[in-house]
Amino acid sequence: MSTPVSLPVLLAADSVTRRFGEVTAVLDVSMTVAAGEVVGLLGANGAGKTTLIRMLLGLLPVTAGEVRLLGGPPDRQRRRRLGYVSQGLGLYTDLTVTENLAFVARIYGAPVPPLPPALAAHADRLVADVSLGLQRQLAFTCALLHTPDVLVLDEPTSGVDALARADLWDTIREQAAAGVGALVTTHYMQEAQQCDRLLLMSEGSLVAHGSEADIIAGTTAVEVQAEDWSAAFAALESAGEPVTLAGRSVRVADADAHGIAATLAAAGVTAHVRSVPATIEERMTVLARASNHP
User: Fold this and answer.
1) What pTM does this model have?
2) 199 and 42 Cβ atoms separated by less than 8 Å
3) Which tens digit of pLDDT belongs to each residue from 11-34?
Protein backbone atom coordinates (compact mmCIF):
# COMPACT_ATOMS: atom_id res chain seq x y z
CA MET A 1 0.00 0.00 0.00
CA SER A 2 1.61 3.27 -1.12
CA THR A 3 2.16 6.16 1.28
CA PRO A 4 2.61 9.85 0.38
CA VAL A 5 6.29 10.47 -0.31
CA SER A 6 8.41 11.65 2.66
CA LEU A 7 5.52 11.63 5.14
CA PRO A 8 5.99 9.43 8.23
CA VAL A 9 3.53 6.56 8.60
CA LEU A 10 1.48 6.93 11.79
CA LEU A 11 -0.90 4.01 11.42
CA ALA A 12 -0.36 0.81 9.44
CA ALA A 13 -1.65 -2.69 8.85
CA ASP A 14 0.43 -5.34 7.08
CA SER A 15 -1.50 -8.34 5.71
CA VAL A 16 -3.88 -8.27 8.67
CA THR A 17 -6.47 -11.01 9.12
CA ARG A 18 -9.02 -11.49 11.90
CA ARG A 19 -11.15 -14.60 12.31
CA PHE A 20 -13.92 -15.29 14.79
CA GLY A 21 -14.16 -19.06 14.77
CA GLU A 22 -15.28 -20.05 11.27
CA VAL A 23 -16.01 -16.44 10.28
CA THR A 24 -13.32 -14.30 8.65
CA ALA A 25 -14.13 -10.66 9.43
CA VAL A 26 -10.98 -9.14 7.88
CA LEU A 27 -8.81 -10.89 5.31
CA ASP A 28 -5.23 -9.94 4.38
CA VAL A 29 -5.67 -6.15 4.55
CA SER A 30 -2.70 -3.79 4.19
CA MET A 31 -3.06 -0.03 4.58
CA THR A 32 -1.36 3.08 5.93
CA VAL A 33 -2.19 6.53 7.25
CA ALA A 34 0.58 9.11 7.05
CA ALA A 35 1.10 12.37 8.90
CA GLY A 36 -1.01 15.20 7.51
CA GLU A 37 -3.41 13.11 5.45
CA VAL A 38 -7.05 12.16 5.82
CA VAL A 39 -7.84 8.61 4.73
CA GLY A 40 -11.46 7.57 4.26
CA LEU A 41 -12.44 3.98 5.05
CA LEU A 42 -15.61 3.05 3.15
CA GLY A 43 -17.77 -0.02 2.91
CA ALA A 44 -21.21 -1.38 3.66
CA ASN A 45 -22.25 -2.49 7.14
CA GLY A 46 -20.43 -5.73 7.90
CA ALA A 47 -17.58 -5.00 5.49
CA GLY A 48 -15.02 -5.25 8.30
CA LYS A 49 -14.24 -1.57 8.88
CA THR A 50 -14.77 -1.49 12.65
CA THR A 51 -12.96 -4.80 13.16
CA LEU A 52 -9.97 -3.40 11.25
CA ILE A 53 -10.01 -0.25 13.37
CA ARG A 54 -10.14 -2.21 16.60
CA MET A 55 -7.09 -4.20 15.52
CA LEU A 56 -5.22 -1.03 14.53
CA LEU A 57 -5.80 0.35 18.01
CA GLY A 58 -4.82 -2.83 19.84
CA LEU A 59 -8.37 -3.33 21.13
CA LEU A 60 -8.64 -6.64 19.28
CA PRO A 61 -5.76 -9.07 18.61
CA VAL A 62 -4.93 -9.97 15.03
CA THR A 63 -5.22 -13.56 13.82
CA ALA A 64 -2.41 -12.96 11.33
CA GLY A 65 -0.35 -10.00 10.15
CA GLU A 66 0.87 -6.95 12.05
CA VAL A 67 -0.43 -3.53 13.02
CA ARG A 68 1.63 -0.48 13.98
CA LEU A 69 0.62 2.71 15.74
CA LEU A 70 3.18 5.52 15.71
CA GLY A 71 5.92 3.14 14.63
CA GLY A 72 5.31 0.31 17.08
CA PRO A 73 2.71 -1.94 18.67
CA PRO A 74 -0.49 -0.17 19.77
CA ASP A 75 0.36 -0.26 23.48
CA ARG A 76 -1.00 1.94 26.25
CA GLN A 77 1.75 4.56 25.87
CA ARG A 78 1.23 5.02 22.14
CA ARG A 79 -2.56 5.09 22.52
CA ARG A 80 -2.19 8.18 24.71
CA ARG A 81 -1.18 10.01 21.52
CA LEU A 82 -4.34 8.89 19.79
CA GLY A 83 -7.73 10.58 19.47
CA TYR A 84 -10.50 8.02 18.98
CA VAL A 85 -14.23 8.37 18.42
CA SER A 86 -15.91 4.96 18.38
CA GLN A 87 -19.38 4.23 17.06
CA GLY A 88 -20.47 3.87 20.69
CA LEU A 89 -18.92 7.29 21.45
CA GLY A 90 -17.45 6.24 24.82
CA LEU A 91 -19.27 8.92 26.80
CA TYR A 92 -20.72 8.61 30.31
CA THR A 93 -24.43 9.22 29.91
CA ASP A 94 -24.97 9.73 33.65
CA LEU A 95 -22.51 12.65 33.71
CA THR A 96 -23.13 16.12 32.32
CA VAL A 97 -21.53 17.44 29.16
CA THR A 98 -19.04 19.47 31.24
CA GLU A 99 -18.28 16.56 33.56
CA ASN A 100 -17.48 14.27 30.62
CA LEU A 101 -15.06 16.81 29.21
CA ALA A 102 -13.41 17.41 32.60
CA PHE A 103 -13.06 13.67 33.20
CA VAL A 104 -11.26 13.07 29.89
CA ALA A 105 -9.04 16.12 30.41
CA ARG A 106 -7.99 14.81 33.82
CA ILE A 107 -7.11 11.39 32.37
CA TYR A 108 -4.72 13.00 29.89
CA GLY A 109 -3.48 15.72 32.24
CA ALA A 110 -4.70 18.33 29.76
CA PRO A 111 -6.51 21.62 30.38
CA VAL A 112 -10.28 21.60 29.94
CA PRO A 113 -11.00 23.33 26.63
CA PRO A 114 -13.97 25.64 26.07
CA LEU A 115 -17.04 23.93 24.73
CA PRO A 116 -18.17 24.70 21.18
CA PRO A 117 -21.17 27.07 21.20
CA ALA A 118 -23.70 24.32 20.40
CA LEU A 119 -22.48 22.27 23.36
CA ALA A 120 -22.02 25.21 25.71
CA ALA A 121 -25.78 25.77 25.68
CA HIS A 122 -26.17 22.27 27.17
CA ALA A 123 -23.12 22.25 29.44
CA ASP A 124 -25.00 21.21 32.59
CA ARG A 125 -27.31 18.65 31.04
CA LEU A 126 -26.74 14.91 31.37
CA VAL A 127 -25.33 13.40 28.19
CA ALA A 128 -28.27 10.99 28.17
CA ASP A 129 -30.60 13.99 27.74
CA VAL A 130 -28.93 15.64 24.74
CA SER A 131 -29.33 14.68 21.10
CA LEU A 132 -27.15 12.12 19.34
CA GLY A 133 -25.72 14.90 17.21
CA LEU A 134 -24.57 16.81 20.29
CA GLN A 135 -23.19 13.62 21.81
CA ARG A 136 -21.07 13.08 18.71
CA GLN A 137 -19.79 16.66 18.87
CA LEU A 138 -18.85 16.11 22.51
CA ALA A 139 -17.04 12.85 21.72
CA PHE A 140 -15.11 14.64 18.97
CA THR A 141 -14.18 17.48 21.33
CA CYS A 142 -12.97 14.94 23.90
CA ALA A 143 -10.89 13.15 21.24
CA LEU A 144 -9.02 16.37 20.41
CA LEU A 145 -8.42 17.89 23.85
CA HIS A 146 -5.00 16.24 24.42
CA THR A 147 -3.63 17.29 20.99
CA PRO A 148 -3.28 13.78 19.52
CA ASP A 149 -0.93 12.81 16.68
CA VAL A 150 -3.44 10.39 15.15
CA LEU A 151 -7.22 10.58 14.85
CA VAL A 152 -9.37 7.49 14.29
CA LEU A 153 -13.00 8.43 13.78
CA ASP A 154 -15.59 5.70 13.27
CA GLU A 155 -18.59 7.42 11.66
CA PRO A 156 -18.11 10.62 13.69
CA THR A 157 -20.85 12.54 11.86
CA SER A 158 -23.62 9.93 11.83
CA GLY A 159 -26.80 11.57 13.11
CA VAL A 160 -25.27 15.06 12.97
CA ASP A 161 -27.00 17.82 10.98
CA ALA A 162 -25.40 19.17 7.81
CA LEU A 163 -23.99 22.35 9.38
CA ALA A 164 -22.42 20.45 12.29
CA ARG A 165 -20.96 17.92 9.84
CA ALA A 166 -19.34 20.73 7.90
CA ASP A 167 -17.87 22.17 11.12
CA LEU A 168 -16.48 18.78 12.13
CA TRP A 169 -14.87 18.32 8.73
CA ASP A 170 -13.34 21.79 8.90
CA THR A 171 -11.73 20.69 12.17
CA ILE A 172 -10.52 17.41 10.65
CA ARG A 173 -8.85 19.29 7.80
CA GLU A 174 -7.32 21.77 10.25
CA GLN A 175 -5.87 18.87 12.22
CA ALA A 176 -4.41 17.35 9.04
CA ALA A 177 -2.87 20.69 8.10
CA ALA A 178 -1.12 20.64 11.49
CA GLY A 179 0.39 17.21 10.72
CA VAL A 180 -2.17 14.90 12.32
CA GLY A 181 -3.02 11.71 10.43
CA ALA A 182 -6.72 10.83 10.33
CA LEU A 183 -8.58 7.63 9.49
CA VAL A 184 -12.31 8.28 9.07
CA THR A 185 -15.21 5.97 8.28
CA THR A 186 -18.32 7.53 6.80
CA HIS A 187 -21.50 6.65 4.93
CA TYR A 188 -21.74 10.14 3.42
CA MET A 189 -20.15 10.15 -0.02
CA GLN A 190 -19.85 13.96 0.04
CA GLU A 191 -17.54 13.51 3.03
CA ALA A 192 -15.50 10.88 1.20
CA GLN A 193 -14.66 13.58 -1.34
CA GLN A 194 -12.89 15.52 1.42
CA CYS A 195 -10.43 12.68 2.03
CA ASP A 196 -6.97 12.58 0.47
CA ARG A 197 -7.21 8.85 -0.17
CA LEU A 198 -9.97 6.25 0.07
CA LEU A 199 -9.91 2.60 1.14
CA LEU A 200 -12.87 0.48 0.03
CA MET A 201 -13.71 -2.70 1.92
CA SER A 202 -16.15 -5.43 0.96
CA GLU A 203 -16.70 -8.78 2.71
CA GLY A 204 -13.65 -8.21 4.90
CA SER A 205 -11.24 -7.51 2.03
CA LEU A 206 -9.74 -4.30 0.70
CA VAL A 207 -11.09 -4.13 -2.86
CA ALA A 208 -9.84 -0.70 -3.97
CA HIS A 209 -7.73 2.23 -2.79
CA GLY A 210 -6.61 5.62 -4.05
CA SER A 211 -8.31 8.90 -4.89
CA GLU A 212 -11.97 9.00 -5.88
CA ALA A 213 -10.92 9.36 -9.52
CA ASP A 214 -8.52 6.42 -9.20
CA ILE A 215 -11.24 4.18 -7.77
CA ILE A 216 -13.95 5.12 -10.25
CA ALA A 217 -11.43 4.89 -13.12
CA GLY A 218 -13.32 4.10 -16.33
CA THR A 219 -16.46 2.75 -14.68
CA THR A 220 -19.65 4.10 -16.19
CA ALA A 221 -23.34 3.88 -15.38
CA VAL A 222 -26.50 3.98 -17.43
CA GLU A 223 -28.92 6.80 -16.70
CA VAL A 224 -32.58 6.21 -17.50
CA GLN A 225 -35.04 9.05 -17.88
CA ALA A 226 -38.62 7.83 -18.06
CA GLU A 227 -41.97 9.48 -17.49
CA ASP A 228 -42.96 6.41 -15.47
CA TRP A 229 -39.70 6.09 -13.55
CA SER A 230 -41.19 3.59 -11.08
CA ALA A 231 -42.04 1.21 -13.94
CA ALA A 232 -38.48 1.58 -15.27
CA PHE A 233 -37.06 0.88 -11.84
CA ALA A 234 -39.27 -2.20 -11.36
CA ALA A 235 -38.43 -3.62 -14.80
CA LEU A 236 -34.68 -3.30 -14.29
CA GLU A 237 -34.82 -4.58 -10.72
CA SER A 238 -36.78 -7.64 -11.91
CA ALA A 239 -34.04 -8.23 -14.48
CA GLY A 240 -31.47 -8.40 -11.67
CA GLU A 241 -29.74 -5.12 -12.48
CA PRO A 242 -28.02 -3.12 -9.65
CA VAL A 243 -30.51 -0.27 -9.96
CA THR A 244 -30.61 2.92 -7.87
CA LEU A 245 -32.51 6.20 -7.89
CA ALA A 246 -30.99 9.68 -8.19
CA GLY A 247 -33.93 12.05 -7.86
CA ARG A 248 -36.32 10.80 -10.56
CA SER A 249 -33.54 9.32 -12.68
CA VAL A 250 -32.97 5.57 -12.62
CA ARG A 251 -29.30 4.50 -12.72
CA VAL A 252 -27.62 1.17 -13.35
CA ALA A 253 -23.94 0.75 -12.52
CA ASP A 254 -21.50 -0.82 -14.99
CA ALA A 255 -24.17 -1.67 -17.54
CA ASP A 256 -24.51 -1.55 -21.30
CA ALA A 257 -26.88 1.17 -22.49
CA HIS A 258 -28.18 -0.92 -25.41
CA GLY A 259 -28.90 -3.86 -23.12
CA ILE A 260 -30.74 -1.63 -20.64
CA ALA A 261 -32.78 -0.08 -23.46
CA ALA A 262 -33.71 -3.56 -24.71
CA THR A 263 -34.79 -4.66 -21.21
CA LEU A 264 -37.00 -1.60 -20.84
CA ALA A 265 -38.49 -1.99 -24.31
CA ALA A 266 -39.33 -5.63 -23.59
CA ALA A 267 -41.15 -4.48 -20.45
CA GLY A 268 -43.08 -1.86 -22.44
CA VAL A 269 -41.34 1.09 -20.76
CA THR A 270 -40.51 4.11 -22.91
CA ALA A 271 -37.33 5.83 -21.76
CA HIS A 272 -34.28 7.83 -22.80
CA VAL A 273 -31.10 5.90 -21.99
CA ARG A 274 -27.50 7.15 -21.96
CA SER A 275 -24.09 6.23 -20.52
CA VAL A 276 -22.71 8.58 -17.83
CA PRO A 277 -19.72 8.56 -15.47
CA ALA A 278 -20.27 6.38 -12.42
CA THR A 279 -20.39 7.74 -8.88
CA ILE A 280 -18.23 6.40 -6.06
CA GLU A 281 -21.30 4.61 -4.63
CA GLU A 282 -21.86 2.87 -7.96
CA ARG A 283 -18.23 1.83 -8.16
CA MET A 284 -18.53 0.41 -4.65
CA THR A 285 -21.58 -1.57 -5.80
CA VAL A 286 -19.63 -2.98 -8.75
CA LEU A 287 -16.69 -3.97 -6.58
CA ALA A 288 -18.96 -5.56 -3.95
CA ARG A 289 -20.73 -7.61 -6.62
CA ALA A 290 -17.38 -8.72 -8.04
CA SER A 291 -16.11 -9.82 -4.62
CA ASN A 292 -19.30 -11.80 -3.98
CA HIS A 293 -19.20 -13.45 -7.43
CA PRO A 294 -15.53 -13.99 -8.31
Assistant:
1) 0.81
2) yes
3) 999 999 999 999 999 999 999 999
